[in-house]
Amino acid sequence: MKEIPYEEIPLMEEEIKIYKIGDDILREEAEEVKNIDGKLVDFVKKMFYTMYNNRGIGLAATQVGSKKRFFIVDLTLNQEPGKKLVIINPVIVESEGEEIGEEGCLSVPGVTENVKRKERILLKGISLDEKEIEIEASGLLARVFQHEIDHLKGKLFIDYLSPIKKALIIKRLKKQKKKEGW
User: Fold this and answer.
1) Is residue 174 part of a domain?
2) Per the structure, how many domains does the chain have?
3) CATH number assigned to the domain comprising residue 53
């Protein structure tokens, strides 16, 4: 297994709006990133700041209003500097096994549910320094990768639930959205 290509990325202390369930962008498919430039790097820095401020461990570009195909991950919640992952144009090329585990999402506030995912995956993509990367992942990291890739395809984790359970969650979140104004 190759070493995971963690990034040393300083934060840009500017929070970006996180779109929530019901916002159209969450159902749109992201477009391939064709150019990694300073604008993208600055956006990534803001994404990490936003993710940490909201106690997340993964964040897809579509969740913060960008239609570009990339996501960020830090399972340590910034407790171990230098453990940041940026995956651009990610593709799962192999997967095996199944496991059920709890998931939540910054775009689906206050909801956690058990979701079936692949147990192990092989992910390919591009790093922020434009190098091709390949990561073998299992456990929580594999789950987060699959969750974030779903976002880039316009899919939410609640889409894996039964229609009745999903409908109840959406109904509850519509009330919450109206009450809290998000």
Assistant:
1) no
2) 1
3) 3.90.45.10
Token pair for 75: 């399972």
Domain assignment present for 165: no
Q: What is the mean pLDDT of residues 120-147?
A: 97
Among residues 172, 176, 153, the alpha carbon closest in space to that of 26 is found at 153
Q: Is residue 139 part of a domain?
A: yes
pLDDT tops 70 at residue 2: no
Q: Taking the model in full, what pTM does it have?
A: 0.94
Q: Is residue 64 part of a domain?
A: yes
Q: Are the C-beta atoms of 46 and 126 separated by less than 8 Å?
A: no
Q: Which long-range contacts (CB under 8 A, 24 or more apart) does 73-81 make?
A: 73/141, 73/144, 73/145, 73/148, 74/48, 75/140, 75/141, 75/144, 77/52, 78/48, 78/52, 81/8
Q: Which residues are known to be catalytic?
A: 148
| The pLDDT of residue 89 is above 70 | yes
Q: What is the mean pLDDT of residues 53-74?
A: 98
The whole domain housing 129 covers 24-98+118-155
Predicted confidence (pLDDT) at residue 182 exceeds the cutoff of 60:
yes
* Cα dihedral value 151, 166, 107, 7, nearest 10: -40
Is the model more confident about 89 or about 178? 89
